[in-house]
């Protein structure tokens, strides 16, 4: 089933909404917040940032919060807050699943696969292709 637009947010999208969770902000403030909170791993260039802001505004996630000089400020709407919280919950479920996977593997992974069973019975199946590095 194809994903719908805005169903899962990209990292950049998530950090833009995270910044606006804190307070109304202009583009420069959003960029600085994302870089600071991520320890510099998220860098929003102007093209990415303003494309996302326009897209979020079109989707109803953001509203114009006014201007000061040449700076335009953005406000997170209820729909934007819901999108942020939904993505945050989805990411938390992924982390919870990863934590559970470290503790116990599903039975389908611990029983072995057809190659292991065939090898124990003396049958030879073609070897698994080796990854190209």
TrEMBL record:
SUPFAM superfamilies given in the database record: Winged helix' DNA-binding domain
Coiled-coil segments on the chain, per record: none
Record Gene3D superfamilies: Winged helix-like DNA-binding domain superfamily/Winged helix DNA-binding domain
Pfam name, any one: PadR
Positions of the UniProt region annotated as Disordered: 106-133
Domain Transcription regulator PadR N-terminal intervals: 16-84
Matching PANTHER family: PADR-FAMILY TRANSCRIPTIONAL REGULATOR (PTHR33169), TRANSCRIPTIONAL REGULATOR RV3488 (PTHR33169:SF14)
Protein name according to UniProt: Transcriptional regulator, PadR family
Species the sequence originates in: Subdoligranulum variabile DSM 15176
């Amino acid at each position: 089933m194809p994903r719908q637009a805005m169903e899962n947010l990209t990292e950049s999208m998530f950090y833009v909404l995270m910044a606006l969770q804190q307070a109304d902000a202009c583009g420069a403030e959003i960029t600085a917040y994302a870089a600071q909170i991520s320890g510099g791993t998220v860098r929003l260039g102007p093209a990415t940032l303003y494309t996302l802001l326009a897209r979020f505004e079109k989707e109803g996630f953001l509203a114009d919060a006014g201007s000061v000089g040449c700076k335009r400020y953005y406000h997170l709407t209820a729909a934007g807050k819901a999108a942020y919280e939904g993505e945050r919950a989805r990411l938390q479920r992924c982390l919870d699943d990863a934590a559970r996977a470290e503790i116990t593997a599903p039975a389908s992974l611990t029983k072995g696969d057809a190659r292991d069973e065939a090898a124990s019975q003396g049958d030879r199946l073609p070897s698994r292709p080796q990854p190209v590095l």
